[in-house]
Design brief:
The chain has two domains: 227 residues, 3-Layer(aba) Sandwich (Aspartate Aminotransferase, domain 2); 123 residues, Aspartate Aminotransferase, domain 1 (Alpha-Beta Complex). Helices cover 37% and strands 14% of the residues. The strands form three sheets. It has a seven-stranded mixed beta sheet with strand order 1-9-8-5-4-2-3, with helices on both faces. The chain has a three-stranded antiparallel beta sheet with strand order 7-6-11, with no helix packed on it. Strands 10-12-13 form a three-stranded antiparallel beta sheet, covered by helices on one side. Helix 10 packs across helix 12.
Length: 383
């Protein structure tokens, strides 16, 4: 094992982590006081803080409804079940997390994989058209890295014209928007994740946003074991325990209140990276399109040529104490063994770019000097 990096005086250099969750001292006090309150009340699920979190999140996204659930994965599956995808084809981007396609399978549908735009890592209308089948019910759009495609209007129009629905997998996209429309408000419904790596977290949890009263009603039933009412044991859907607990809602509510400040931190770091990589050889940052507002859940940079990425990351970590974040994504879904039954064709853009990008560390509370250290390390190793 190599010695940790040190400054000229021999003092070890603090590591730059791939990500870090930030809860300020005042956040911890606020959260602890409310958890004490609900412990005293005994109402630990589907209580006032869950409802308050839902109302605040719906206001933030500009939608009529928000339904809090146990994870982003369950949010997406509930939406797909509410849309009756069983026995139908659902188009999903291949450069996404396992849960995007797994939710389709668990809801009884068949995933059909789509290729991606090399400029935004999003699906394009032509990718949807190319993948369409006679039995397609709709398609899922993923806001990769918190970047909303500038072609969302075209995608929405395509869905309308073809009689399909559009669902947003907005797991990365809290506070992101394009053209003044928030992520979560473009499709018939959207699924957000509050997993600890996300821009904001509730420790574990997810949220469904929608303007559709029926989908919201279905979501309320599905998340609570398929019951028509919290107070009755009349089960109308094959639901699960997909509830969000009150402690999780309290944590999420606090982070939602701080979301703008946390995203501002990320944008500040991204601006340093943008400047440092401008005109540089070896790395091309994924640019935010005009009219877009990204939260920089990930700062994606495309390598000019394929590299041994594990070796590159190891060198950055061991020589410079810089850890890169996880890719978006390392292996496209159609190349994952579990999805082999639905992998019917090659998707060349994703196969190339999934193997040829890195994600630079970016998180709330990150120091400017850390970003400059990342750039210096990249200059030494990549360029």
């Amino acid at each position: 094992m190599s010695n940790p990096p040190a400054d000229p005086g021999g003092t070890p250099v603090p590591a730059v982590p791939a990500a870090r969750i930030q809860f300020l001292p005042e956040d911890r006090v606020w959260i602890a006081a409310r958890i004490q309150e609900i412990l005293e009340s005994g109402q630990l699920t589907l209580g006032r803080y869950g409802a308050e979190f839902e109302r605040a999140f719906a206001r933030r996204c500009g939608t009529r409804h928000a339904v809090a659930v146990s994870s982003g994965t369950s949010a997406l599956e509930i939406v797909l079940r509410s849309l009756n995808v069983a026995g139908r084809d659902v188009l999903v981007p291949t450069n996404s997390f396992f849960a995007t396609a797994a939710a389709v399978v668990h809801a009884g549908g068949r995933p059909v994989f789509m290729d991606m735009d090399p400029e935004t890592f999003a699906v394009r209308p032509e990718d949807v058209e190319r993948a369409l089948t006679a039995d397609a019910a709709g398609f899922v759009v993923v806001h990769i890295g918190g970047l909303v495609s500038p072609r969302m209007g075209e995608l929405s129009e395509l869905a309308r014209r073809k009689g399909l629905w559009l669902v947003e997998d907005a797991a990365h996209a809290h506070a992101s928007s394009h053209g003044g429309v928030s992520a979560g408000a473009f499709g018939v419904a959207a699924a957000f994740s509050f997993y600890p790596t996300k821009v904001m977290t509730s420790a574990e949890g997810g949220m469904i946003t929608t303007d559709d009263d029926r989908i919201a009603e279905e979501a309320h039933a599905y998340r609570d074991q398929g019951k028509a009412s919290f107070l009755e044991n009349a089960h109308t859907r094959m639901g699960y325990n997909w509830r969000m607990s009150e402690p999780h809602a309290i944590i999420g509510l606090r982070h939602l209140e701080r979301l703008d400040a946390m995203v501002a931190d990320r944008r500040r770091i991204a601006a340093i990276y943008d400047e440092g990589l401008r005109g540089g050889r070896g790395l091309r940052p994924l640019a935010v399109p005009p009219g877009g507002c990204a939260n920089f859940y990930k700062y994606v940079a495309v390598l000019a040529a394929r590299r041994d990425r594990p070796a590159l990351k190891k060198e950055l970590r061991e020589r410079f104490a810089v850890s890169l974040s996880g890719e978006v994504y390392e292996t496209p879904l159609h190349a994952q063994p579990v999805f082999k039954p639905w992998a019917t064709r090659s998707l060349p853009v994703a196969e190339d770019l999934c193997a040829r990008h890195v994600c630079l560390p970016v998180f709330s509370g990150m120091e400017d000097g850390d970003a400059r250290r990342v750039l210096a390390a990249l200059a030494a190793v990549v360029r």
